[in-house]
Specification:
The structure holds 2 protein chains of 2 kinds. Chain A contains 5 helices and no strands. Chain A has helices spanning 2-12, 26-57, 59-70, 72-99, 106-134. Chain B is built from 5 helices and no strands. In chain B, α4 packs antiparallel against α5. Chain B starts with 5 loop residues before the first helix and ends with a helix. The chains are: A mainly alpha, B mainly alpha. At the A-B interface, α2, α3, α4 and α5 of A face α2, α3, α4 and α5 of B.
Chain lengths: 140, 124
């Protein structure tokens, strides 16, 4: 009986502040995004290896790779990979600047964070736009 | 009173037992990856839409093959260091932690091996 009360009380008890109740500051979001894009890019190395192995192996492997990359799903994955690379690249440079002691001011860190998001999305869109429009490849 | 042994104190490596080695290597690989990622972006944008033969011709040039192999090795090393931070942060059980650390390294070695052998077979 007392155990049940304790159990219920434990369940009702307020928790210490957790990330779900914060309004996310930009700097927190950029930090988490850096990790998530890092994990995504780790998985993306499989795609690079598949590419290199398949061009070396010949059409038997290259045609499936080419079909995958050209499919809607493949293009979405590829866009995610390109954006993740652009983001991790830009935010990595931001981190290196911090390591050198620059940009630690709160307002500066806030705005460079927003800059990194905007720049990485623009870079990814620019890369795809260049391939579709300038190189004239059909989107699908 | 400190329970540190004199050897432990003089080594100054702290609780991680590796000092700043991990931090420093992550930064060095990060800096090295700046030009390499730019080159990789250039290479992919140049090759995309081309035929398999175009890509083979590109990588049969030794400079491109060496740059690609260097890019992959440094990228994978940077990846192992990064994954280690994530695993250290989120996996409290020592057994699972060691298993994941070994798995991430095995993954990196497998990818590096596949890429380097492919590049060698293209070049030679």
């Amino acid at each position: 009986m007392t155990d049940q009360v304790h159990g219920a009380a434990r369940r009702e008890r307020p928790r210490s502040p957790h990330f779900t109740i914060y309004r996310w500051p930009v700097t927190m979001a950029t930090s988490i995004t850096h990790r998530v894009t890092g994990l995504g890019l780790s998985a993306g190395t499989l795609l690079i290896a598949w590419w290199l192995v398949s061009i070396q192996f010949g059409p038997d492997l290259y045609i499936p790779f080419s079909n995958f990359v050209g499919s809607i799903f493949g293009q979405v994955i590829l866009f995610g990979f390109v954006w993740a690379l652009a983001y991790h690249f830009c935010n990595g440079i931001r981190h290196l600047a911090w390591d050198l002691g620059y940009g630690f001011n709160v307002r500066t860190a806030h705005w460079t964070g927003i800059l990194v998001y905007v720049l990485s999305v623009l870079l990814a869109i620019a890369a795809f736009a260049w391939v579709y429009l300038v190189k004239g490849l059909s989107p699908l | 009173m400190s329970l540190d042994t004199p050897l432990h104190r003089v080594q100054g490596l702290g609780s991680s037992h590796s000092g700043v080695t991990h931090f420093w290597r992550q930064r060095v690989t990060a800096v090295a990856l700046i030009p390499l990622v730019l080159w990789f972006g250039y290479a992919v944008l140049r090759l995309v839409g081309g035929s398999m033969i175009d890509t083979l011709t590109f990588f049969s040039h030794p400079l491109n093959a060496v740059l690609m192999a260097t890019f992959m090795v440094i990228l994978l090393y940077h990846m192992v260091l990064g994954l280690q931070v994530v695993i250290d942060d989120y996996v409290p059980s020592p057994g699972a932690k060691i298993a994941l650390l070994l798995l991430s390294r095995a993954f990196a070695l497998a990818i590096a091996g596949a890429c380097i052998i492919s590049l060698l077979r293209i070049v030679i």
